[in-house]
Design brief:
The complex is a heterotrimer of chains A (225), B (624) and C (405). Chain A is α/β, with parallel strands linked by helices. Chain A is 34% helix and 30% strand. Chain A is built from 7 helices and 10 strands. Chain A has helices at 47-54, 77-83, 100-110, 115-128, 145-158, 175-190, 203-208; strands at residues 3-15, 20-32, 36-41, 62-67, 70-71, 85-89, 163-167, 195-199, 211-216, 219-224. In chain A, helix 6 links the parallel strand 7 and strand 8 (195-199). Chain B folds into 3 domains: 2-50 and 460-554 and 562-618, no CATH class; 52-64 and 92-122 and 272-456, no CATH class; 131-269, no CATH class. Chain C has a 6-stranded mixed beta barrel with strand order 3-4-9-6-8-7. A two-stranded antiparallel sheet of chain C has the order 2-10. By secondary structure, chain C is of the alpha+beta class. Chain C has helices at 2-11, 13-50, 72-79, 105-108, 152-158, 203-206, 216-225, 245-255, 278-295, 298-318, 321-329, 334-363, 368-391, 398-402; strands at 54-58, 70-71, 84-97, 111-116, 130-132, 147-151, 165-176, 181-198, 212-215, 231-232, 234-239, 258-259, 272-275. Classes of the chains: A alpha/beta (225), B alpha+beta (624), C alpha+beta (405). Chains in contact: A-B, A-C, B-C. Chains B and C meet through strand 2, strand 3, helix 10 and helix 11 of B and strand 8, helix 8, strand 13, helix 9 and helix 10 of C.
């Protein structure tokens, strides 16, 4: 399988006013399409840091991060996030001032997709995540957590990218919604050939993953492949 | 508090900026209030010290040229005389839209003939010889035409120093272009005055022999005519006007008009030395000598408003007159008014160096003028006069008494020796300070073009303008300070309180009470607000001392050639008054700022405290 | 991003209205402020336009402003000065009809002559009416032709009519400053054409009228032809531009005119000048000081507008940090995301400015051009503050705000 992302000996050092912290130390791994990857670990182990590097929100201090063979440092990271990788969050982070449909249309509008086309596609993506049409015109504050997360996933796939990064996507959900989201993520990976990388504490989510990495004190190890 | 300050100190840029801006805001507010207070106090303090006086003059309609013969130069000299179709009166100044605080008044001075008092002239010339003005009989030493200085022998002194009898004097009919022959064998009588140096062939010859004659004066005849006027300015007819001045003495000469006049002149010619001018007015400051400070009360008090209104028999007397006559405050001065002069001032006719100008004191029938009013005035104030660089138009007169105008019964121009239109020295009024523009606007609308005004306000207009500017300036400072303070407190309370919500949540989750949390967050903030505002307020109070009215009234225009402007403000003793209650203002400003900051911060703090700590810390709420 | 900006404005009505209102108030306040400055400046201009500052040449102690000797050099300098207007010159002469000898002057010299350079000269009595011969008007006073205007009664007495050629022997006043005497001296006999007559039907008023009026330059030329020093006896004029008073006074100094020195020796020489500008100076100084104080606040006002823009934008932006982070995580570049917020503020500020301009127009304190200038200044200052406030957003790390750690 084609490696979407490959981390080679990636290290990351946080520099604050008072101290330096090595959040990641020599992380090497790869992520392929069509699989669900779980990165587990305690709080402060470096999972979110690793996720931010995978999302192109920062670059490694040492090592390389290759996206489909290209060094992350050499590509436009904004374009990367716009067209190739998307992030979904524990707190959903939908635009509070846009409706559900407008939230999903947003990435396509950034890509200058004509409004009609964007709307049609957004409706498709919302259907894909099984969101009822009656909710399309609602504001995020008016729908449940599970519905919000589904909208977030729809928005994530609306950009057309093939890499889906999720930071504790079920952290704010009840068990039922958690199950729905996990199933959705697996479906996206297995059926739509996304590379889904989930940072999670949750055993149930990790259990559903195809590959599980463990992060401890900035060092990544394979837990299950 | 230590914790709060420590945490604020760890964002040094934010904290320093907050402190400095707070200081500036407090400075602006305090400065604005201080300057306002100072300006208002200054206006209150000095308002009463200013008086705005306007003087009035009537423009002449044309000028006539009067020719005066000069025997020495053998030509006419031209004297211009202003001509008026009629004299305007003070009633013409009564127009709508104008408020007078005093006047307008056109003043006359009255000549009081009181030989029992020693006047300035006599005090300066105690051993004066009576030779300047004579009534004599004389004969020329030879037949001659007195068109130049000629010698005459005094055969009889009727009025004057009798030692001159038998002596020789130089004589010339100086102002007569066509003098008549004088014959050696005739005796002539005349009223003589000496004022011109010797001139002519005979005199030059005599001077060659005796050079000291260069300093001798010739005697010239003076007209026997009266100089009385009517109120409209026309002269009362007198047969001796433009008539002969030298008379041949024949039998019964002294029964004739000329003879009687000469006899009457014997006494009246010297009256001038015993005349004391009396000026009636309605307010002392209307007399420009007093207004300008050239004349000032040294003992006693000024005549009160009530005394002026009631026409009380009180007066202000000059110090020198009082000393010369051994008088003191409270004594009475007898006054016998002999004539009225509405044209000139006492200062013009009775100079402070003793010189005086009185002229003929005969009436149109050749009789000596009789006093028309007798009174006694109590001295309530003694004044002194600066001599030297005084304004010659407005100077006060020697021995001049100042009395209420209404105390003089006969104000209708009795024995009017000179009559004239309104002039700056004789006509003035007082208007409220700061109303010159309104007056001129009203005059433009309702007044006549014949009258012109000059205003004196001792710089009040400039002072008020300076103070108004200061007040506007202070309002700006106050507004800027208030806006800046408001914005700063809103902004920084947000930064230091609202944005510390998480810290508050942590403190609460660690078991601190709401009150302790408030103190933890607010103590540092309030400390900075208090210290910053106190420092700013103190700075504002201190800075306000360097703001003066003079700073606010610079002169942009050159005042060279200017006439009729207010006195230079730098000449007025305007002391910058100390700021009253400066400390109170500073403390209040500081407290208001601190109070406002406290209220804002508390409100924000309450909002933070209302939210559950776990809610804040676990970030469960969507969209926060 | 534009669609998002518009929706954001639409859906955050409260915040949008706040920004619009603040800007509207700022524009109104600034217009009032500049309006005040403009008003003072207009008052100053009006004061200058409506104030006539009269200047009169006098003798040194200021006691005489007529029948004094004002030199021809002074008059020439005044004529060529650009700082003055309404120059009014006059000289008084005496004349007699026909030619006669010096010794006979007292029998023949009975005409008062006034030579003036304009019909409305202050030297002429008020109410003097002149009837001109056909083809002639008051413009004759500005020329140097040998023409004259005579009293009607004199014309009747002498049997003269319009157009008649008459001979006048002219005498002038010589001012002896040493002896303080005015002397009459013969000037010349010259021919003049009668082109006007003075209406002296009112015996009272006409006593003050001169017998003959001549053009001022004509009199001057007569002096020069006879190689005599010409002096005018009355000169007055007005300051051309009161606002250029200092330049005017400097020129007067250069001409050689002195300030009046009270108490100085009496003199006939017209060497001093008095300028009736006391009230103008007082009022103009007051206005200029007010303008100075107000304009001194231009910079603080600008800073205040900047601070308002900064503070409000900062407070509003603080509430939208996560929004910004979301943009970043969705692939919007940092500057592009900041620009989106900036454009949003721009639209609101412009809306506020437009409303403020309309309100200012209604207040009517300033013209449209001034209002637009003020609006521009307010807009610039506020947006500068907004820019500075929003730029810090670009430095925020998005993932820190969005992730669970």
């Amino acid at each position: 399988m084609e490696k979407m992302i490959e981390a080679v000996n990636v290290s990351y050092i946080y520099q604050t006013k008072y101290q330096k912290t090595k959040a990641l130390s020599g992380v090497s791994c790869s992520f392929e399409r069509g699989k669900v990857y779980a990165v587990t670990g305690k709080s402060g182990s470096g999972k979110s840091t690793f996720l931010s590097l995978l999302a192109g929100l920062d670059v490694p201090t040492e090592g390389t991060l290759n996206i489909e063979g290209e060094d992350m440092r050499k590509i436009n990271r904004d374009t990367y996030r716009l067209n190739r990788a998307s992030v979904i969050y524990q707190a959903f982070h939908l635009f509070p001032l846009l409706t559900v449909l407008e939230n999903v249309m947003f990435p396509m509008q950034l890509q200058h997709v004509p409004a009609k086309q964007a709307k049609a596609r957004a409706q498709e993506y919302l259907k894909k995540v099984d969101l009822p049409e009656s909710l399309y015109k609602k504001m995020p504050g008016m729908i449940s957590g599970g519905e919000q997360q589904r909208v977030a996933i729809a928005r994530a796939i609306a950009s057309g990218g093939e890499i889906l990064l999720a930071d504790e996507p079920t952290g704010n959900l009840d068990s039922q919604n958690e199950k729905v989201i996990v199933e959705l993520l697996c479906k996206l990976a297995h059926e739509d050939n996304y590379a889904v990388i989930v940072v999670t504490h949750n055993e149930a989510v990790a259990a559903a993953a195809d590959v599980v990495y463990g992060m401890s004190d900035g060092v990544l190890s394979v837990v299950r492949e | 508090m230590k914790n709060s300050l420590k945490q604020m100190a760890r964002t040094p840029i934010k904290t320093t900026l907050f402190f400095l801006l707070n200081l500036v805001a407090a400075l602006l507010m305090t400065l604005g209030v201080c300057i306002w207070q100072k300006s208002s106090s200054m206006m209150d303090k000095y308002e009463d010290q200013f008086a705005t006086i306007g003087t009035v003059r009537q423009r002449p309609e044309s000028f006539e040229q009067v020719r005066i013969w000069d025997a020495e130069e053998k030509r006419y000299s031209i004297v211009k005389r202003a001509q008026y179709a009629s004299y305007d009166t003070v009633e013409d100044l009564d127009i709508p839209g104008v408020t007078y605080l005093a006047g307008p008044e056109q003043r006359a001075y009255y000549a009081s003939y009181t030989p029992q008092y020693t006047k300035l002239w006599r005090s300066m010339n105690p051993n004066a010889i009576d030779t300047a003005v004579l009534v004599v009989e004389f004969t020329p030493i030879e037949d001659c035409i007195p068109e130049e200085s000629v010698k005459i022998r005094i055969t009889k002194v009727i009025g004057g120093d009798s030692r001159l009898e038998g002596t020789m004097l130089w004589f010339c009919d100086h102002s007569n272009p066509k003098p008549e022959m004088l014959y050696q064998d005739k005796t002539y009588a005349a009223y003589l005055n000496n004022s011109t140096f010797l001139h002519g062939e005979r005199a030059e010859e005599a001077k060659r022999e005796s050079p000291m004659l260069s300093y001798e004066l010739e005697y010239a005849p003076v007209s026997l005519s009266s100089q009385l006027y009517r109120l409209d300015g026309s002269m009362i007819e007198d047969p001796f006007r433009d008539g002969p001045e030298i008379f041949e003495v024949t039998d019964g000469f002294y029964e004739t008009d000329a003879g009687k006049r000469l006899l009457n002149l014997v006494d009246t010619r010297m009256y001038g030395r015993d005349i004391q001018p009396v000026t009636g007015t309605n307010e002392t400051c209307l007399l420009m000598a007093f207004y300008n400070g050239d004349a000032y009360i040294t003992e006693g008090r000024d005549i009160s408003g009530k005394e002026y209104r009631d026409g009380a028999k009180v007066c202000l007397a000059p110090r020198r007159f009082m000393e010369n006559n051994g008088l003191s405050l409270g004594d009475q001065i007898q006054v016998r008014l002999l004539y009225t002069d509405t044209r000139w001032t006492a200062g013009y006719c009775f100079e402070l160096d003793g010189g005086y100008s009185v002229g003929s004191l005969l009436d149109e029938e050749g009789n000596a003028l009789e006093p028309f009013e007798t009174s006694a005035y109590t001295v309530v104030g003694i004044y002194d006069t600066t001599v030297g660089d005084t304004d010659l138009n407005f100077r006060s007169g020697a021995d001049e008494l100042i009395v209420p105008m209404h105390s003089i019964r006969e104000r209708g121009g009795m024995n009017l020796k000179a009559s004239g239109p309104m002039a700056d020295a004789t006509t003035s009024f007082r208007i409220p300070n700061g109303t010159i523009d309104e007056f001129l606007a009203a005059w433009e609308k309702y007044g006549t073009k014949e009258l012109e005004f000059t205003f004196y306000d001792r710089g009040y207009t400039q002072l008020k303008a300076g103070i108004d500017n200061m007040k506007n300036f202070s309002l700006f400072l106050l507004a800027s300070g208030v806006i800046l303070t408001g914005l700063l407190l809103v902004f920084y309370s947000y930064l230091f309180v609202t944005k510390q919500m998480e810290r508050t949540a942590v403190e609460r989750s660690l078991g601190m009470t709401c009150g302790q949390c408030r103190w933890s967050i607010l103590s540092g903030f309030m400390m900075f607000v208090l210290i910053g505002s106190m420092a700013g307020a103190a700075g504002g109070m201190h800075l306000s001392r360097s703001f003066s009215v003079k700073n606010a009234s610079p002169a942009y225009y050159d005042s060279a050639y200017s006439v009729g402007e207010a006195a230079d403000i730098n000449e007025i003793v305007i002391e910058d008054i100390p700021l009253k209650d400066g400390l109170v203002i500073a403390v209040c400003s500081s407290l208001i700022i601190t109070g406002t900051g406290t209220v804002l911060a508390l409100k924000r703090m309450d909002r933070s405290l209302k939210r559950e700590p776990m809610q804040i810390l676990c970030k469960e709420a969507a969209g926060e | 991003m534009y669609h998002y900006i518009l929706k954001s404005i639409q859906r955050q009505k409260g915040r949008s209205l706040l920004v619009i209102l603040v800007n509207c108030i700022l524009v109104i306040l600034l217009n009032l402020y500049f309006g005040l400055i403009g008003s003072y400046q207009a008052q100053l201009r009006d004061l200058a336009a409506n104030t006539s500052i009269k200047c009169i040449i006098t003798n040194l102690d200021g006691s005489r402003d007529s029948l004094i000797a004002i030199s021809s050099d002074t008059i020439r300098a005044l004529q060529s000065s650009e700082q003055i207007r309404g120059l009014d010159c006059s000289v008084i002469l005496e004349a007699g009809f026909g030619e006669f000898k010096m010794e006979e002057w007292d029998q023949h010299l009975n005409l008062l002559v006034r030579a003036v350079n304009n019909r409305d000269s202050a030297a002429l009595p008020e109410g003097l009416k002149v009837q001109y011969m056909e083809g002639w008007d008051e413009a004759l006073f500005t020329g140097n032709q040998h023409v004259c205007i005579m009293k009607e009664s004199d014309m009747e007495k002498q049997g003269f009519a319009f157009g008649d050629d008459i001979t006048l022997t002219i005498y002038y006043f010589y001012y002896d400053d040493k002896e303080l005497l005015m002397d009459l001296r013969e000037l010349d006999s010259a021919k003049f054409i009668i082109v006007g007559q003075i209406d002296d039907s009112d015996p009272m008023a006409s006593q003050r009228y001169p017998n003959i009026l001549l053009p001022f330059q004509t009199a001057w030329d007569l002096f020069e032809e006879n190689q005599e020093d010409f002096t005018a006896d009355e000169v007055s004029f007005y300051v051309g531009d009161p606002l250029a008073l200092n330049a005017f006074k400097q020129e007067m100094r250069e001409i050689g005119l002195m300030e009046i020195i009270k108490g100085s020796r009496l003199s006939f020489k017209g060497t001093a000048l008095y300028v009736q500008d006391g009230i103008f100076i007082t009022m103009a100084d007051r206005l200029k000081t007010a303008i100075r104080i107000l304009t001194a606040f231009l910079l603080p006002m600008g800073i205040l507008v900047f601070i308002v823009g900064y503070v409000i934008s900062h407070l509003l932006a603080n509430g939208r940090v996560k929004e910004f982070a979301l943009f970043r995580s969705l692939g919007v570049g940092a500057l592009r995301a900041v620009r989106a917020f900036w454009y949003e503020q721009l639209i609101l500020v412009l809306a506020g400015n437009v409303l403020g301009c309309l309100a200012a127009l209604l207040l009517g304190k300033q013209g449209i051009q001034e209002i637009m200038t003020v609006c521009g200044a307010s807009f610039g200052g506020y947006m500068l503050g907004t820019t500075v406030a929003l730029l810090w957003l670009a430095k925020e790390k998005p993932l820190e705000l969005l992730t669970s750690e």
